[in-house]
Amino acid sequence: MSLSDSIPNNVDLGSDRKLLRALEKWQPNFLSWWRDMGPEGFQEDQIWLRTAISVHADGWAHYDYVRMPEYRWGIFLEPQQGDRRIGFGDEADVKAWDEVPGEYRGMLRRIIVTQADTEPASVEQQRLLGKTAPSLYDLRNLFQVNVEEGRHLWAMVHLLHQYFGRDGREEAEALLERRSGDVDKPRILTTFNERTDEWLSFFMFTMFTDRDGKYQLSALSESGFDPLARCTRFMLTEEAFHLSVGENGVGRVVQRAAEATLADPNGDARAQGAIDLTTIQKYINFWFSSAVELFGGEVSSNAADYFATGIKGRHHERKKYDDHAALRDVYALPVVEGGRVTTQEVPLRNAMNEVLRDEYVRDCERACRRWNQVIRKSGLTGVALTLPSRRFNRSIGAYADHCFDPAGEIVSDAVFTARKDDWLPTPEDRAYVQSLMVPHYAPGEFAPWIAPPRKGVKGRPIDFEYAKLAAR
Ligand SMILES: [Fe+2]
Ligand SMILES: [Fe+2]
Which helix (H) or strand (E) segment is 404 a member of? Predict the structure, then answer.
């Protein structure tokens, strides 16, 4: 482990002068990207952040005040396991690759670049949110997520530089040139070009969109390309926090909604300055349906190739499955035929996107049950949040050509258009949510539309000074 190097790392950068020089050349470009596109208006403030300093389960992170441009973005890979074997596909049990196999180079590069591109994209999407933070606690969590997405970019760029030669270096530059939402140079995936300009959307993003990232990283952590597996395994450690920010954030908005509904004589949460459960449900419908698109087509020859070649496995491939060839089984996929939903059997390898999406949906359902517990605990009865069907509101894949209601039943275009405002946020809903976005920077103070968390960060109290802000 070397923390004194210009770039903290556990990959022995110091002994690879060429790689170190290449990364040191990329570093100032990263920093100028961070200054331009990172959190706007808070670059000089001291934020109480954790920094990854090792990969040891006990004590991998260090907490202290830091100015974000001085954050120590490092490169950390889980240690190599002696004799790791490819875990699945046609080459299962062959020794895992320490270098990129020539025939898979293009495929691997595409996967790494696509994943890498989402990291700076989300920082760009969230760059104005600090100005309307509901509390110092939330402000700090936002910036924690942001700097760690920056570190994920570093992790991926390290792979590009070390294993993909000149192509890799060019891709690393391009990652700093694309911009979320830019007409000429947009980020690669559509969702990462959408605006996340208020905090309900931020919590929905970290709940639903970042959670897609978790499952993608998990599938890559099984990869036969060992450096990618080791790199993504450590990213997952940080990712867990991002997902908790989303899940707990939505939970706290739900709690406040339920309390406000009960407190208001007419059951009108908005009259109490909270966000009503109906609006929260519409946001869930929107963000969930946008995030499930990220898993790709239901039937996919690319997904089959990724699995066959040993590049991308299933979530918990080694732990959860016995048959790592996946050649015998089929997947029963609901499809539309003759105007109704029936089931079609797909060879399992071609359904790997759907297998991963299943894991994701189950995880989201678990979170939704937790939010409903929050509602029940508040004493409010007769209302519950639901996760829409994965067929609802899709624009790519097997369900894109039909309209579905949130329960997943086919409806006509006319019905969908007529009901759309009941199912998805309207401009009025968005304007209302936006109208609540007023900053609360005093330690321990929270905006009226969100409940305080149950506990603070790393044993600190809720009213801890999570950011020392210059007078504003
Ligand atoms: Fe990330
Ligand atoms: Fe994340």
Answer: strand 403-404
Question: What pLDDT is stored for residue 472 in this prediction?
Answer: 77
Task: Report whether 232 contacts 220 (CB < 8 A).
Answer: yes
pLDDT of amino acid 3: 56
Residue-range domains of the chain with CATH: 13-468 (1.10.620.20)
SS3 at position 398: coil
The per-residue pLDDT of the chain, averaged, comes to 95
Confidence of residue 82 (pLDDT cuts 50, 70, 90): confident
**Ligand positioned closest to the Cα atom of 152:** 1
Distance 242 CA to ligand 2 centre (A): 5
Ligand 1 center to residue 145 CA distance, Å? 8
- Cα 243 to averaged position of ligand 1 atoms, centre (Å): 10
- Alpha carbon of 210 to ligand 1 centroid (Å): 7
Token look-up 């792979």 returns: 159
Residues with C-beta atoms within 5 A of ion ligand 1: 119, 149, 152
Query: Which ligand is located closest to the Cα atom of residue 116?
Result: 1
CA of 82 to the centre of ligand 2 (A): 29
Confidence grade of residue 104 (pLDDT, cut at 50, 70, 90): very high
The structure tokens listed for 64 are: 């202290």
Residue 449 tokens, joined: 């539309």
| Cα-Cα-Cα-Cα dihedral sign, residues 240, 77, 119, 134 | positive
| Cβ-proximal residues to 379 (8 Å cutoff; 6+ apart), any chain | 258, 262
**341 Cα–ligand 1 center, Å:** 36
> How many angstroms does the Cα of residue 122 sit away from the middle of ligand 1?
9
Cα(472)–Cα(461) distance, integer angstroms: 24
- Tokens 């894991």: give the residue: 359
- DSSP reduced 3-state for 470: coil
Ligand 1 centroid, distance to 380 Cα (angstroms): 36
Residue 451 alpha carbon to ligand 2 centre in Å: 23
**pLDDT digit string (tens) for 126-162?**
999 999 999 999 999 999 999 999 999 999 999 999 9
Which distant-in-sequence residues (6+ apart) come within 8 Å of 353 by Cβ?
295, 296, 297, 298, 300, 303
**Number of residues assigned to the chain:** 472
43 C-alpha vs ligand 1 centroid, how far in Å?
Answer: 20
Single-letter residue type at 375: I
Integer Cα distance of 23 and 365 in angstroms: 41
pTM beyond 0.90: yes
Distance CA 167, CA 112 (A): 12
Residue 156 Cα to ligand 2 middle (Å): 13
- Statement: residue 205 has pLDDT above 70: yes
